[in-house]
């Protein structure tokens, strides 16, 4: 199986009956899907289950993919929908970024993250932890742009905003991420720079 194939080529093969070709899609997007699910659930086991369910649902609905946008955009919508349904069923509290206590909760979560950082000095984990401290809209923008490799136009479509607005919001989200990294992970960042 050629991993250099485009998503559309792979999807065409799957729709023609080559079910094994779908493994390339799963491999290509498993980290992206898991990261989105983990962002919503804050629980590894739930995120793994939701990621698996997202790939199953995407496979079953592959005929519905029209190709108007990137496959990752379509997949993002499926994952997000499953996560929101999961949260509603679990009746977990979903916070608005307009509520002041969201920032307090993020700071409280930081204490647990610091212990994990001592044990596991992973650059990816450190960045993901810093993203988790951001308001949900900022985290979503960063995940779409960097993990999902979405263009500003695609991000605008997903979020219902203009591409220029997406660019401004992305710039601000990067600044907030830098501040969180400096505030909460200064030692780890210094270790990576000096290593």
Number of helices: 10
Give the amount of beta strand, in percent.
under 5%
* Helical proportion, percent range: over 70%
Summarize the biggest pleated sheet.
none
What CATH architecture label of the largest domain applies?
Orthogonal Bundle
Q: What is the count of β-strands? A: 0
Full CATH superfamily name of the largest domain: Winged helix-like DNA-binding domain superfamily/Winged helix DNA-binding domain
How many domains? The number is 2
CATH topology of the largest domain, anyone? Arc Repressor Mutant, subunit A
Order of helices and strands: HHHHHHHHHH
CATH C-level class of the largest domain: Mainly Alpha
User: What class, by secondary structure content?
Assistant: mainly alpha
Radius of gyration: 18 Å
**Low-pLDDT stretches:** 92-98, 111-121
Tell me, what's the shape? globular
Mean pLDDT: 79
Q: How far do the termini sit from each other? A: 37 Å
